[in-house]
């Protein structure tokens, strides 16, 4: 016959965290979203109130919630793109095979440019590689061309101006991080 597990005596529980409540705190509840490993002890009626009012996503904007949901698919653990890793090994193997067959290493390939950088360069009407000075000169030229004050508030030019500003900031970050 299986053993019956008995609930510990009420004296072994801390008092309910809720002020003025004399009940033993038999149930634990997380303190906050940031402190999920730290608990407060509540009686049954107060833990029910706590659970009804608990909203994990309270104070988060929609982008944060969507990022959380996307990350939850993998259990909030880092993942690696299998195709990129295979592609890296493929190019290494291809280079070694070329070296074996031709007796020399292949000419170095042009650096791979991230898609966001390529898009920003296209908006700025520039080619890779670029320098800080050439970026600044191009930015000044495009700002003069597309600034809303110079185009009588034309919405199309205003949108181009916004895109140019965003692309310029991104490319400036890229240059400064090199």
Rounded radius of gyration (Å): 30 Å
Q: CATH class of the domain at 115-177, anyone? A: Mainly Alpha
CATH fold topology of the domain at 115-177: Helix Hairpins
What distance lies between the first and last C-alpha atoms, to the nearest angstrom?
71 Å
Instruction: Give the tally of β-strands.
Output: 2
Structure description:
With 178 residues, the chain is mostly helical. Among the domains are: 10-55, no CATH class; 115-177, DnaJ domain (Helix Hairpins). It has six helices and two strands; from the N terminus they run E-E-H-H-H-H-H-H. A hairpin with an 8-residue loop joins strand 1 (27-30) and strand 2 (39-42). Helix 4 (115-123) packs across helix 6 (155-177) and helix 5 (132-146) packs antiparallel against helix 6. The longest helix has 23 residues, at 155-177. The termini are far apart. The model has no long low-confidence stretch (mean pLDDT 82).
